[in-house]
Design brief:
2 domains, 9 strands, binds zinc ion, five-stranded mixed sheet, mainly beta, 11% helix, 2 helices, four-stranded antiparallel sheet, rod-shaped
């Protein structure tokens, strides 16, 4: 094992922000023994140092038990909990058996509908009024998800 310390001017592998590859870079700046800025030997671009992702890490299967789930406190906004549309469809599926289809009113944007009223929309089909969102818009849950429809204010 080499214990050689890196210093400015040394060549190190880094991911290049321009080449988008792991390439040899020359160390430009170091702070407290850590490489901070590097210059790409390929494109000569100077950028922050991005350590190359190890093969092990890149190829590890996602389901591996060794991969610890992220702490709940660290925000990971890229992972949606659940598709909202999926949730709406499930809600429709759970509500629809209780629908009295005979009572569904043909949707007319010049009408005002109370919450829980069943309506029949020419395009979306049977839906149930979930809420009046703004004075002239209501949220209606259809088989294919919730839609905003005009209504009389
Ligand atoms: Zn480069």
């Amino acid at each position: 094992m080499s214990t050689k310390k890196l210093s400015a001017g040394d060549i190190i592998e880094s991911r290049c922000t321009k080449c988008r590859e792991v390439l040899n870079h020359r160390i430009v700046a170091m702070v407290e023994g850590k490489v901070v800025r590097v210059e790409c030997n390929t494109c000569n671009g100077v950028h922050n140092y991005y350590p190359p992702v190890s093969e092990k890490e890149a190829k590890a299967p996602r389901s591996s038990a060794a991969v610890k789930p992220r702490a709940a406190s660290s925000a990971s906004p890229r992972v949606p909990r659940k598709d909202p549309l999926e949730a709406e469809r499930e809600e429709w599926a759970s509500l629809s058996p209780t629908f009295d289809y005979d009572k569904a009113l043909h949707y007319n944007m010049n009408e005002r509908y109370p919450v829980k009223r069943l309506i029949n929309h020419t395009v979306f089909g049977i839906g149930i009024v979930k809420a009046v969102v703004t004075p002239n818009k209501m949220q209606v849950l259809f088989k294919d998800g919730a839609k905003l429809l005009r209504c009389q204010s």
